[in-house]
Amino acid sequence: MANIPIIALFCFTIFVSSSLNFVYGAENMTYVVVGHVYCDTCRVEFETKLSEPIAGAVVKLECRNRTDNHLTFQSQEIVTDERGDYHIVVEGDYEESDCDIALVRSPNPDCSDPSEMWRISRVVLTTLDGVSGELRFANNLGFKKDKALPQCTRILQEMGYYELSQESGELSPSSEL
Ligand SMILES: *[C@@H]1O[C@H](CO)[C@@H](O)[C@H](O)[C@H]1NC(C)=O
Ligand SMILES: *[C@@H]1O[C@H](CO)[C@@H](O)[C@H](O)[C@H]1NC(C)=O
């Protein structure tokens, strides 16, 4: 139920910003970046059905000028809700910047090791490169659990990963159980 006002706020924000954008152009654009933070309970660097949302995880959005690396936007620390979801409102156009959402910290001591692959997500915050729309989706970001859950072996076998990683001689999930 708590999500209904948030959705209404999104719609309102998007409606208002679309109207303004129509009148004023890209520099007055408002973007809503949405994303999700999960706990990789199998320590495999991707989401499985055993992954769990992390409520209270902290992320940050930063944009840096692609040419001189100066900070062009920095959000406050953003905290995920009870579903592990967050949203960040950004005003302006960042065509000349690279914008990244990064994990800052996890509230769970047993799941606070940032994923190698999914600790940062690039988001595009301009309409000038052909991406339209105010809602921008970031890749899900994950922290890894300190010890993989016992059920992971079965889930990964079902997914066909288990044998694969054993054959290739890489660190297999079983070695962490
Ligand atoms: C952005 O909006 C303000 C009014 O809120 C206006 O004065 C300004 O000219 C607009 N900028 C652009 C680039 O259209
Ligand atoms: C980015 O840096 C370049 C080189 O310093 C500068 O010309 C440009 O205006 C900067 N853009 C923004 C949006 O700050």
Automatic annotation (TrEMBL):
Q: Which domain of life is it from?
A: Eukaryota
Coiled-coil blocks: none
UniProt KW Signal keyword: yes
InterPro entries assigned to the protein according to its UniProt record, in alphabetical order: Pollen_Ole_e1_allergen
Q: Output the Pfam families linked to this UniProt entry.
A: Pollen_Ole_e_1
Which key words tag this protein in UniProt?
Disulfide bond, Signal
Q: Does Iron-sulfur count among this protein's keywords? A: no
Q: Which ranges does the record mark as transmembrane? A: none
**Which interval of the chain is the signal sequence?**
1-25
Family, per entry: Belongs to the Ole e I family.
Indicate what this protein is called per its UniProt record: Anther-specific protein LAT52-like
